[in-house]
Design a protein that fits this description.
165 residues; mainly alpha; 72% helix; flat
């Protein structure tokens, strides 16, 4: 739960069972919407990187190919250890990305647990991206690039780990 800190945990502990379930349900809705926004922005940037000559979009697509070729000991550690290392970055990076999504996108989508992005037929990623302030959008896309560099490195590492030598 990227947005869940000690206040969230304390509130959850003090809540009765019925209220606790409501808090969990609302938190899950927020995480789901924010995650879908992040995925949609990423997919849009990759697609637009092929169609438009915008450096930030192109960099996201290219980030999957760059970064380390693989974790240096990919062949010598067990898969669970390797997956743990890879997911460690994601779990440490998630709160930062979560804050970026909340700061840059519509509060109805990112802070209202009654809103469901999957059911919003008027949702348009293009319309969501257009009003973004360019420096803020570029800063957000830089974080996406970091994630894609790790994803490229991680996928190569996992393949090296799984394939016979």
């Amino acid at each position: 739960m990227p947005h869940g800190g000690w206040i969230y945990t304390f509130k959850l502990l003090l809540a009765g069972e019925k209220k606790r379930e409501q808090i969990k349900k609302e938190s899950l809705a927020l995480v789901k919407n924010r995650h879908f926004i992040y995925e949609d922005v990423t997919a849009f940037a990759i697609q637009q990187g092929l169609l438009e000559n915008k450096p930030a979009y192109r960099k996201i697509r290219e980030a999957l190919k760059i970064g380390l070729p693989a974790f240096s000991d990919s062949r010598t550690v067990d898969t669970d250890t390797l997956v743990s290392r890879i997911t460690n970055f994601s779990s440490l990076h998630a709160p930062f990305v979560d804050k970026q999504v909340v700061a840059r996108f519509d509060s109805k989508m990112t802070q209202d647990p009654s809103y469901d992005l999957e059911l919003d037929h008027s949702f348009s990623i293009r319309k969501l991206m257009e009003p973004l302030d360019r420096p803020l959008a570029d800063q957000f896309l830089q974080e996406v690039i970091k994630d894609h560099e790790l994803a490229g490195t991680a996928s190569r590492s996992l393949l090296l780990n799984a394939l016979p030598q």
